[in-house]
Write a structure and sequence with these properties.
This protein has 336 residues and is an alpha/beta fold. The chain contains 13 helices and twelve strands. The chain has two domains: 134 residues, NAD(P)-binding Rossmann-like Domain (Rossmann fold, 3-Layer(aba) Sandwich); 191 residues, NAD(P)-binding Rossmann-like Domain (Rossmann fold, 3-Layer(aba) Sandwich), CATH 3.40.50.720. The two termini are 30 Å apart. Bound molecules: nicotinamide-adenine-dinucleotide (NAD). The site of nicotinamide-adenine-dinucleotide has 31 residues, from helix 4 and helix 6. Its EC number is 1.1.1.28.
Length: 336
Amino acid sequence: MRIAVFSSKNYDRTFLDAAAERTDGRHQFTYLDGRLDKQSALLAKGHDAACAFVNDRLDRQVLGILAGEGVRLIALRSAGFNHVDLEAARKEGLTVARVPAYSPDAVAEHTAALILSLNRKIHKAYARVREGNFALEGLLGFDLRGRTVGIVGTGKIGLCMAGIMKGFGCELIAHDPKPDPQMENLGGRYVDLDELFERSDIISLHCPLTPQTYHLIDHQAIGKMKDGIMLINTSRGGVVDARALIAGLKSGSIGSVGLDVYEEEGDLFFENLSSKMIQDDVFARLLTFPNVLITGHQAFFTREAMTAIAETTIANITSFEENGVALHEVSVEKLA
Ligand code: NAD
């Protein structure tokens, strides 16, 4: 198959080429730097598949163009598929495949890194020590042991996260419409969302972005949380209302925030914009808080995860070529 790989960076090429070499190397990849949108979709002409990442646009119009150019398969290099109009894909006769699990550990470990860094102010200490400032004022943290961690979404990543936090001696509470007995095996307890907001010292979000979880963390939710709450989001930006976060940070009701995702990250993340002005005033405001730590959607970014993403993407493509069915399809029918 010929595959147009959108939003591809050098690291995507490295891992996809290496995975292709380990299989039979039968597919041809065209690497395109740009994000997939209605203009760049035309570049898929002559390709059987479009391979897309989290900030590519896969709305009705783009899917229509891709189908018109002869694309039959959308191979997502992500687990999340909230950016794909599945109904439109079905109408266009496009198969959509994803990488459902590559390394939940990668994301959970990065989440734990955000918690530890924020709590012990590693980001501040790093800068201070390099400038010869060894003062400890402003670096006071708290013991994790005995703290209550609220996990929203106990799927693959949420469960890994629960295991890590159990290791720190935390009390685990969780919320998920589909409770998993493994959570209880870890000593965790399912509670309703209000109780989770009220009782947690740290809240970590691991649910997908859906109409139900859009702005799950808003003014009202923040109002129910303990003063000084640490809030971590490594799921999808849209789960959190960033304006409500800013209000909570300004009033001091939120103690600290760790974000790997941001609702409007599409115009920012994965690019080096160091010589450009950030136009997003909400994001720029978030960056001004010393108790906010933001990483640019890198939680997945480990060697193991990149290898697994490349291998599963190729397996999806090969299966589609051989059987007309991808290994890990997502469709409106499957979600129903
Ligand atoms: P998963 O499908 O295994 O788990 C998601 C869980 O969320 C499920 O148990 C589901 O029942 C639950 N859920 C659904 N609606 C909910 C709601 N309203 N409230 C609470 N829980 C709800 O997915 P996963 O592999 O654990 O990934 C979780 C999310 O992490 C993904 O959807 C994706 O958005 C995000 N993610 C981020 C990165 C990153 O690099 N930052 C990488 C991979 C995945």
